[in-house]
Amino acid sequence: MKKLFSYFETLVDPYVDYPQEDVPPRTLWRFMLGYCQPFKRVFWLAGIFSVLVALVEIGLIYYMGWIVDALAGEPSAVWAEKGSLLIGLGLFVVFMRPLLQVVDVMLINQTILPNVGTLIRWRAHSHVMRQSVGWFENDFAGRIANRIMQTPPAAGEAVFQVFDALTFALAYVVGAAVMLWGADVRLVAPLLLWLTAYGLLMRWTIKRVGPASKEASDARSAVTGRVVDSYTNIHSVKMFTHNGEELGVARDVIEKARQTFMVEMRIFTLMDLALVTLNGLLIAGVVGWSVYLWMQGEASVGVVAAATALTLRLNSMTAWIMWALTSFFRQLGVVAEGMETIAQPITLLDSEGAKPLQITEGKIEIKALAHSYGRKTGGLEGVDLTIEAGEKVGLVGRSGAGKSTLVKLLLRFYDAEGGQILIDGQDIAKVTQDSLRAQIGMVQQESSLLHRSVRDNIRYGRPEASEAELLEAARQAQALEFIETLADTEGNQGLEARVGERGVKLSGGQRQRITLARVILKNAPVLLLDEATSALDSEVEAAIQDTLYGMMEGKTVIAIAHRLSTIAQMDRIVVLDAGRIAEAGTHAELLAKGGLYADLWRHQSGGFLGEAT
Length: 613
What we know:
Blueprint (H helix, E strand, L loop, with lengths): L1 H8 L18 H8 L4 H31 L4 H55 L3 H5 L3 H43 L4 H45 L1 H6 L3 H53 L5 H42 L21 E8 L8 E8 L4 E5 L6 H8 L7 E6 L2 E2 L5 H6 L1 E4 L10 H6 L7 H10 L3 H4 L24 H15 L3 E5 L7 H15 L3 E5 L11 E6 L2 E6 L1 H7 L2 H7 L11
Parallel strand pairs: 3-8, 3-9, 6-7, 7-8
Antiparallel strand pairs: 1-2, 1-4, 4-5, 9-10
């Protein structure tokens, strides 16, 4: 039995290679068809077996009527004339019917349901991971994750309803009409009248349930986004005692989700009321008409029995069919909402024919660089700067001067709106993004760690590094001593201890030292330091300064600092102001000049750059 399950479960590989699209289909049907391409053969098989199962059910009802008529004769005569057929029917019901049912159920439950959702989730996540940093900065991480998580099961449920209910139901209704036609053509009339009314009710329901479901899904995503935002920033919530305010905002979005869900449920309630009435008319029409024909001597008892069984079966099926159909469109509404994230085009692409960046020296040339994030002001305005290979440059300026923008453009997290950046003569817009970032090591002001082990976080810098190289990087970052004392709630210790989401189980200084170890292990030829020691206390900072200078040896370095003393020894200091280079020179030269840098130096407080001078 295990091999049988395994056979059906592996008919489709959800991780099969596929051509990635930079601009996914924006219409729902093309979107679904694109994801379902690997399932074409399986869908055909599932449809065929669903129809066969429905026809078998109709056949059983037909033969039930036939048996009722056959029993009107003498038992011995009935057995003599029809015994072999009765045995054949019995064998079919015992052996062939379960076999058809097993294949039908296996195709749906083992092949389609587990793999459709997995394939969509894998490809959707793969697509979203190709989006730029700017794309992520413009949305809630919680909402993105919610759409990635809820769209695949919704799509899988929609596909499930097609083969579990809709194909079966269509075959069943057509088979019922054929059977009634064969018994007495007049019995088809009430069925056709009911089908017409049922179709109108279905149209009314579908027209309303799709938009209502999408609105409800949007509201649920908003709840997830808001709640995750509160959890992610729980330190700020607690520190500013805004628990009540956060609950108030959460209540608003939760209530909106409740209101949209109630609107959706009203549609289903009205549908149920109309359906009960229609089913009553179906039973009265078909059964009543067949009884009338029997009383006129124009129909046998078997026809009455079969017609009665058929209508009662349809009566029990109609609510299921309607629910399946509305669920189908409801799930498509969820998919449509998920498409707002999953189907967004990739805007930051490698240029056609992009080649890997080849660094021979590490010279950086910035020419007429301009970027304002699509706004009219802010960012950078025509920056020209050349950093020689191996040169160490400090970057200073007040908040909003453009320091972070310059770093993001150098990493190509955004495409510059004007100008270009060259590394060893290669335009970074024309090399592959992965090769560019592989050649740049960066220590950020806010160290961000993955919710994995310390080992995994350090090895992230260079996964193929040896254990000895990893330990040496941790030692250079002054991290080995505290790593040995770490333990998590699962009993993992030292390098195996998990650090918590974004490293919350560690102090700021511990996180920063693990981040430093990761960058040391990466050993990239270009190094970006964005307040690299801001989270360290003075004693640890002093101990690690030698490590930082060791990291810089032989590399091209750009260091952003508010603590000006940390960059005073740089080869050159560049001062940004309002998106432009205001001054450049050594620490001594800029102090002697008496300009903006000297002004900032005088107004430092405790070695930090003030926000205003």
